[in-house]
Amino acid sequence: MQEIIYPRSLQKGDQVCLIDPANAYTEAGVDAAVSFLEGKGLQVRVADDMAFRHGTPIERAGKLNRIFQDENCGGIFCIWGGYGTMSLLDYLDYDAIKKNRQVFTGFSDITAMHLAIGQKSGLVTYHSPALYSEKRPTTAEAFEQFWDKIENVERERELKNLNGEDFQVLREGDFEGIVTGGNMTLVSRLMGTEYEIDTKGKVLFLEEVGEMPYRLHGMLSQLRMAGKLQDVKGILIGALTDCDTKGRPGSAMALVQDALEGIDIPIIANVRAGHIKDPITIPLHGKLKASGGRIWQCAAE
Question: Which residues form the active site (predicted)?
Answer without folding.
Answer: 108, 207, 275
